[in-house]
Amino acid sequence: MLGSSMAMLDSTVVNVALPTIGRDLNASLAALQWTVNAYMLTLAGLILLGGSLGDHYGRRKVFVIGVVWFATASLLCGLAPDDITLIVARALQGVGGALLTPGSLALIQASFHEDDRAKAVGLWSGFGGIGAAVGPFLGGWLVDGPGWRWVFLLNVPLALVCAPVALRHVPESRDSKSHGRFDVLGAVLGALSLALVTYALIEATSGSVIIAVMAVAGIAAGVAFVYVEKRRPDPMMPLDIFASRQFTAVNLVTLCVYAAFGGFFFLTALQLQVVAGYSALQAGTALLPTTALMLLFSARSGALADKIGPRIPLTVGPLLCAVALLLMLRVGKDAHYLVDVLPALVVMGAGMVTLVAPLTSTVLASVDTDRAGLASGINNAAARAAGLIAVAALPLLAGMGPEAYRSPDAFNAAFDRAMPICAGVLVLGSLLAFATVRRPPSDCTHRQCRVHGNVTTPPLEPRRGATEPDYGLHR
Question: Which residues form the Major facilitator superfamily (MFS) profile domain (predicted)?
Answer without folding.
Answer: 1-441
